[in-house]
Structure formats: structure tokens, C-alpha cells
Amino acid sequence: MNPLLESPLRQSASQTVAAVDLGSNSFHMIVVRDDGGKLHVVDRLKESVRLAAGLSEDGTLDPDSCARALACLERFGQRLRGLRHDHVRAVGTNTLRRARGADDFIARASEALGHPIEVIYGAEEARLIYGGVIQDLGTDSPDRLVVDIGGGSTELIIGALAEPKLVESVSLGAVVQMQRFFADGRITRKGWRAAVMDARLTLEPIARAYRDAGWDVAIGASGSVKSILRAAGAERADETITPDSLDMLARAMIKAGRVDKLSLPGVSDDRRVIFPGGLAVLTAIFESLEVQSMRVSDKALREGVVADLLGRLHDHDAREQGVKSASGRYDVDRGQGERVADTAIRLLGDADDYYDEDTGPMAVRLLRWAALLHEIGLAISHKGYHKHGEYILRNADLQGFSRADQAILATLVRLHRGRFRVDILDALAPQWRVTAERLVVVLRLAVILHRGRNPQAVPPARLQAGKGGLRLLCEADWLAERPLTRADLTREAEQLARAGITLKTSFIDA
User: Which residue windows are transmembrane per the record (predicted)?
Assistant: First the structure.
């Protein structure tokens, strides 16, 4: 069988997976063994890297922060040696989303870790955080508000059971608030009030929607929230944070006057240096959303990444739901998409050598999703709908997708018709350019073969790839009855020739 088309279900019953979270303050890694659905944590690592502190106003990462990050990832990488790439998922969050020209750093970081690193959108980060936190909860079904305060962003999710219903990622973080309001180490009443008010202003556009949605229980999920619970004197993990405990901590900080004079129970030196920033963000959340109490979870993004990764390995890929949701939202013709997808995958499978070993396991999924969504731009206009589709897919919040995944998906949709733009392919990550070009070709051919939109039609066509280029083999009678398809294929051969790709069409007997 073509390795590209092997099922992800071909996995052993027991397997080890790992998640790496490149947060704005700390880097985390968790290694988990899955024994037939029973999960056992076999290793955890955490290092305070403070990547957000090295992000300058112009969006560049300073050399010292990059060096700390790369050294940390080399240590993490030693623990991950021997694990397959599809058993490791490493995600970058707010700081890497904001960093200008981060591609070079991400390439070096991936090399240091020994596994690819993907940058995820804020909404996807929030979804994964929620998926991690709910592992701590029972099967009751109250609505939950989940809050995760990171170094550079804060995620807020309201959901019930496994389904997030309201998801936001805002540019608020413990490290960022420290830099803006307590950079000199002083903690004054005026500076404190300014930090809280700034956070409230950032939350203002979403606060009413969250208050109106309501929730039954609020849960905090981050190092900042956990340190606040400990600093408030909690002796048990099931205790809660209240407005009174936040006020008490604020008064204690102002009385201390300086960060280096803070003496807080259970708060490490690494956490103390950003404690005022995290407390300001949580105080603003309590005030803006009118939170009365908050429980604290030990689980967060990394546990959510593990759950998502195991879903992918067991053929429950969250990205499938993301594609389905986008298809419904933009009223895409699902039947036409399925027909194009089936033919594109069949053509890809015909050409045994027409894939790349490094990207093969993911390529067929991206081809299918692109086929399902290739007409998404029709929701805007028929004229240039492939360009509209590209814009939607580059900018929409697609469940389960990283920024790199969406870039490939958007590229396939953009190039499924019209001029074959090699420069658009060149903008992809180097390891994807060859595979993406080949996926574009089979998608374009599948779209042509299904231009008639006949629900019963299964084009009798096969694809051959060789040194001389591509050869599309079609049944002579079928093609003779379709002069428009013949003309489309002739035009397509001309389009591909301009990009240096040879396509010939040959007749075969039925």
C-alpha cells in the first residue's frame, strides 16, 4: 500500500506520546504512556525561559532569550529521542505568534528539540487548554468558565462537558503586565491600579458576552493562578480564590513596595518576579466578569495537547470537526466536496512515487480537507472565489489547526484553479513545497473531472507519474462524451507547462 494512504489506526495498543508547550513564560513537557486508553504520566519537565521578556517593541526576540529557549529545547529533545514525529506535538503560543520573523527561530528550535514546532492561534490554544482542564472534572454537566493566564496572553473559555461554547484569547499576560507597569521592580498603589485598569480595558469588549453567557463553576489553569492560590495561604488543592484573597494579596504587595521584597508562601523565585503581573490580570478578570470564586486545576495546555494528539492517532482528529464546522458556516456543497476529495485521493494513490516521506502521513488529510473546502469562497462571490477561499482559510479560527496547517490548506484552495502560482507555493515551509505542489496538481485534476457536478459520476481516470511528467489515463468513450472536460484538460496542460510540469492525457478502453 502507498504509505501516504495508511490508516492512523495502524498503531500498537500501548504507545508513548509527548507534548511540549513553548509558553511565553515557561516551557513545559509531559510524556504519557497510553495503555489501551489508560494514561500514565511517565515524565514531566518545566523550565522558566521567560521568552516574552525578550520580545522587543518591534517584535524581535533578543539573542539571550533565544539562547535560553534553544538550550531548554535541547534538554527536552534528549528525553524525546526515539519517539516518532507523529507521537510528539510541540506548540508555540502568544510570544511566537507575535514575534516578527519567527520562522528562523522556529526552525532552529525544531532542530534543537528534534521534532517540528508549530505555532497555534489563540482560539486553538484556548480549545486545547479547555480539553486539558476537563480531564480533572467528573461527568456532571455544569457550564464551566476556564481561565488560563500565560506570560503573554490569557485564554477564557466557557463550555459544558467536552464542548467549548465561547472561546477568546486576549493580549494579557503576567510577563507583559510586569514589563508595562512594574518593570523597575517597584509596586506602588498607583502602578497597581493602572495595571488592573489596563487589563480591564482589554477585557471590556468581551466581558458582557461572558457575563451574559454565565457559568456554574470558574476554574483557573496556569502557573500564575496556582501561585496566587498558594500565596493566599491555601493548604489544600480544592480551596478557592475569592475577591477577598485577591485584595489581601494586592495590599501585601503594595506594602512590600518592591518585587524583591515580596515574601509569599509557596511562590518560587521564578514565579515571584512576574507575580504582580499575573495578580493584576486575575483581579481584572474577577472584576470584569464578576467572578465570586475560582477553583484551580493542575492540568492545562500540555494535557490538552496530549488528548488531541491521541485523538489524531486513533482517528478522532479534531481538525475534521474544524473542517466540518467551516463547511457548514459557509454553506459549502458537501456532496461536491466529497466527490472531488474521493477522486483526488484516488489519483494520488495511483501515482505511487508521487509523495514525500516526511510529509506523507499528513498529506492525504490536507488534500481531503482542501477538497471539502475548495468552494468555500463562493460564500463571498463566484468571481475569484479561490482567492476568497484562501483569505478565509488563512484567517479563520479552524479547530485543531496550527498556523502552518492553515497556510497549506489555504494554498491548496487558492491554487485549485486559475494560474499555477509557484511563488505562492514557495512561501510554504521548505519541507512542504514539493508535496504541496503535487497535492495541488491532483486537486486541480479532480475539480476538472467533476465540473459537471453529477452526484453519480465516478470519473474513469487514473494518474501515472514518471520521469517524463504526468499522464492522465481516461476511458475514451467517457471523455469523448465530454468536450468541455477535454477542453479543460487541454487548458490545464498549458497552465502546468508554464510551471514546468508536463501533463498528457491518454485514452484507455473501457
Answer: none
Q: Would the pTM of this model clear 0.85, i.e. be above it?
A: yes
> For residues 52 and 23, what is the distance between their CA atoms, to the nearest angstrom?
9
By the 8 A CB rule, do 73 and 21 touch?
no
Which DSSP state fits 427? T
3-state helix, strand, coil in the chain (%, to 5): 50, 20, 30
Q: Which residues 6+ apart lie within 8 Å of 477 measured at CB?
A: 510
The residues with which 89 forms a beta bridge, in sequence order, are 19
Count of structural domains within the chain? 3
* Residue 469 resides in a domain: no
Q: Is 182 exposed, middle or buried (0-12, 13-18, 19+ CB in 10 A)?
A: buried
Q: What is the pLDDT of residues 10-41, one digit of tens each?
A: 344 479 999 999 999 999 999 999 988 788 99
CB atoms < 10 A from the CB of 46, how many? 16
In angstroms, the Cα distances linking 257 to 191, 262, 276, 413, 448 are 11, 8, 11, 56, 70
Q: What pLDDT digit, counting tens, does each position of 147-187 carry? A: 999 999 999 999 988 889 999 999 999 999 999 999 999 99
Cβ contact 201:280 at 8 Å: no
Which CATH number covers residue 49? 3.30.420.40
Q: What are residue 160's DSSP bridge partners?
A: 143, 163
Task: Note whether 25 and 50 are within 8 A (CB).
Answer: yes
CA 309 → CA 88, 134, 355, 370, 434, distances in Å?
8, 16, 23, 21, 26
- Give, in order, the Cα–Cα distances in Å from 408 to each of 125, 221, 294, 436: 19, 32, 40, 7
CA distances, 429 to each of 90, 318, 358, 402 (Å) = 16, 23, 13, 13
Let me know: does 399 contact 319? Beta carbons within 8 Å. Answer: yes
In a domain, 252, yes or no: yes
